[in-house]
Amino acid sequence: xxxxxxxxLKDIAxxxxxxxSTASRALxxxxxxxxxxxxxxxxYAEKHHYIPxxxxxxxxKNRTMTIGMIVPEVVHYYFSSIISGAxxxxxxxxxxxxxxxxxxKLENEIRACHNMLAGNVDGILISISNETEEVxxxxxxxxxxxxxxQFDKYSEKLKSPIVxxxxxxxxxxxxxxxxxxxxxxxxxxxxxxxxxxxKDRLAGYHKALKEHGLDFDPNWIPHCKDITEEEGFAxxxxxxxxxxxxxxxxxxxxxxxxxxxxxLKQAKIKVPDEVGVMGFSNWKISEVMNPSLxxxxxxxxxxxxxxxxxxxxxxxxxxxxxxxxxxxxxSDLIIRESTQK
Amino acid sequence: xxxxxxxxLKDIAxxxxxxxSTASRALxxxxxxxxxxxxxxxxYAEKHHYIPxxxxxxxxKNRTMTIGMIVPEVVHYYFSSIISGAxxxxxxxxxxxxxxxxxxKLENEIRACHNMLAGNVDGILISISNETEEVxxxxxxxxxxxxxxQFDKYSEKLKSPIVxxxxxxxxxxxxxxxxxxxxxxxxxxxxxxxxxxxKDRLAGYHKALKEHGLDFDPNWIPHCKDITEEEGFAxxxxxxxxxxxxxxxxxxxxxxxxxxxxxLKQAKIKVPDEVGVMGFSNWKISEVMNPSLxxxxxxxxxxxxxxxxxxxxxxxxxxxxxxxxxxxxxSDLIIRESTQK
DNA sequence: TTGAAAGCGGTACCAG
DNA sequence: CTGGTACCGCTTTCAA
Lengths: 341, 341
Hints:
Chains A, B: It comes from Algoriphagus formosus. Chains A, B: GO terms for molecular function: DNA-binding transcription factor activity; transcription cis-regulatory region binding. By secondary structure, chain A is of the alpha/beta class. Chain A has helices at 9-16, 20-27, 35-47, 54-61, 77-92, 106-118, 136-143, 167-180, 196-211, 229-241, 254-266, 284-288, 300-316, and strands spanning 66-71, 96-101, 123-126, 147-151, 162-165, 186-189, 248-251, 276-278, 295-297, 326-329, 332-334. The first copy, chain A, has 13 helices and eleven strands. The interface between A and B is large, with 55 and 55 residues. Chain A binds a DNA duplex (16 and 16 nucleotides) through residues 8-10, 18-22, 24-25, 28, 32-34, 37, 52-53, 55-57, 59-62.
């Protein structure tokens, strides 16, 4: 193996008969260096493909220009969009992004945090797992004066900025839309009761019903465990076969809505005429479904971009106390066929 | 801001009245250290939450336990699956993964490579952009004796291991399936002619036709530029309105197939009876389409996992010359309604 | 079994 | 404008 040794500052200094410090200053274009020397050094560096050893620089400056990003899942339209936005913002400011996936397991999340902390990232972006209750592993960052920004699913135990979609408000608008279309008996297939975005969407549902003076049957709010198509199918069946079936179903996610639609199709219940169906997340499938599914676009790219921008700003002002700044990225209601009574 | 200073080895040594080297050895459980000292140091370290400064360790050892991963796009089922597989394999071996996205732009790819190289990653996983022809920016890694593994889209100019899906073979099987189902005039909406997986899928198409002694019209092979639904629609229209319309369309991707299906639906051409449609990639939409789309599942997770495993192995044997080892992950044909004549 | 010290590749302070 | 030097935190060789 060739393994060319890299040219170092010392090499440059030796070859050019100057001191290491002069070489360093010349390359960094400090003031108080003659044009001549600068040119000499820069030319030499270029010619010999000098690449500063960033580990050494990081070591000296005690920062890495790297942020960590911890997400429950990578293969997921919303999360990958968030990642994309964060990568975009980070690149723009010359930061690198280390990504770790927890698979919704607390254990993996803790390991990832330890690893990032030991790895001296300058800050982290994190969306906590469904299992996460205690957050000491994240608090460790704050205790070291490192920036943390939470996105999507967050814990209120941490004093950190938070960036999310406006789940409550957009759920409210989604359900209001159903009401305006004439649906009156609206069910909501929700997620795990203790997960933040489930709670917010449920609250938006309640808010819309209350505002329009609509009642609901407590049986109309089943909770998914894994937010799958299968659960959507099963709960839609359960709802429609109950003694008091709804005339619309607001689903926590498009995949759940897909399952519900499949059940309705099988049961020969017409969508949107007999039952309206509303999804959430605007996955590609929602456009393709038949009838096409009304849903909510959450603009993950913007969430990720904003989260990274806030993090980098905090990273660059290390003397400021971390805040609770709360940012909601406005979602858009996308109206398609499944709610057009 | 609190900004607790981290405990260093020096602190431990001072407090315990031993030398820094002894403390280091005790923590790393070297031979030739008394049990007593080891216990003393380890207890102290634990009690005071000692975290080794990994920048310093990396600096000293001249490695980072970090690999870089450069992909054209993150928000993409196949690529995000590959990322997930790579993260999985890397975590297992204690490596971290830095991710960079090129948006299919050579310029971004070059920047990402420079940045990774300067950042002293131990190796990179890369899928080149559609624009990439010259690969000096990647060759730089090999020249430094750093491991490179290419996946999905690769350049043959680099002497590096390659991991991909078996595009040629699976395209061959997909088209063979169409032939077996009785389709005889099979068109293929291909991608950019110079992109590797387009070429392979096209070759698989040709192989299947040839083997079954079927002719094809040269007009039956249009090339998408962006591989979009819109192109699928437009090319399907062009094909079906031509003087010699096909009776089946093999599409380079599910999204192209979706566009094609939409055109066929609009033109009231029955799928699969009048025209068969075959996709590629097994996106979630293929299952949801009506009729459901036959397609090819490429097992991205396995591709990413394998690529990372090969990279890490190479990283750990830095004295070995890089090889051209070529690994194909076998894809699976998924037969649904759109090809059941 | 332990300690002293060199040094990884830069940065930045202090002198001149 | 330039050189000398200490040092960032840790590993590792050499000597005791």
